[in-house]
Write a structure and sequence with these properties.
- By secondary structure, the protein is α+β, with helices and mostly antiparallel strands.
- The chain is 29% helix and 25% strand.
- It contains one helix and eight strands.
- A hairpin with a 6-residue loop joins strand 2 and strand 3.
- The N and C termini lie far apart (77 Å).
- It is found in: Cell inner membrane.
- It comes from Luteimonas terrae.
- It is a single-pass membrane protein.
- Keywords: Cell inner membrane, Cell membrane, Membrane, Methylation, Transmembrane, Transmembrane helix.
């Protein structure tokens, strides 16, 4: 008979998987999924926290360098509209303001926002950099994602008197300040 398939036993039949083989494969895929999903969630959340804290550190460094470059006071502050500073402790949107030497007003050098449920909190005021690059007073910004995976769900960006940012990890127990 041409076209018939013979198995190892010599009997004819269709080639394929048995029900037991298929169930074992599905069980293995299910176990791998149960193990991999929490680890992947923690990895994604950790990347979100690190990325956002990197953006905040970049804003601090930009404000400091603009103060030195322009030889003027430059402000890093919370903003509600992306154009003016607000006296809010919610820094989910922040701007870097510098004096505009041509018009005499101010120029928004940077407008940053925290994505999704990520939060940034800080002083209910401004971080002002002097023309020397030093800050008027030390400040602390906290970047947070409300989750327990990873345990260190916060990054604290401290702006020391020299104007340099120092980042540390903190365990917020799944909550944000």
């Amino acid at each position: 008979m041409k076209g018939s398939v013979r198995g190892p036993s010599g009997r004819g039949g269709a080639a394929g998987f048995t029900l037991v083989e298929l169930m074992v494969t599905v069980a293995v895929i299910g176990i791998l999924t149960v193990v991999a999903v929490p680890a992947m969630t923690g990895l994604i959340n950790n990347s979100r926290i690190s990325g956002l804290s990197g953006e905040v550190v970049s804003a601090v460094q930009l404000a400091r360098s603009e103060a030195v470059r322009r030889n003027a006071r430059v402000t890093l502050c919370a903003s509600g509209d992306g154009a003016t500073c607000s006296d809010s402790a919610d820094w989910s949107r922040w701007i870097v303001q510098a004096p505009d030497n041509t018009s005499g007003g101010t120029d928004v050098v940077l407008d940053g926002t925290a994505p999704g449920n990520a939060q940034v909190s800080g002083p209910a005021g401004r971080i002002v950099f002097r023309p020397s690059g030093l800050v008027v007073s030390q400040a602390q910004l906290t970047v947070c994602v409300p989750t327990t995976n990873p345990a260190n769900n916060q990054r604290v960006v401290a702006v020391v008197l020299s104007g340099s940012p120092v980042t540390t990890r903190a365990n917020g127990a799944g909550a944000c300040p």
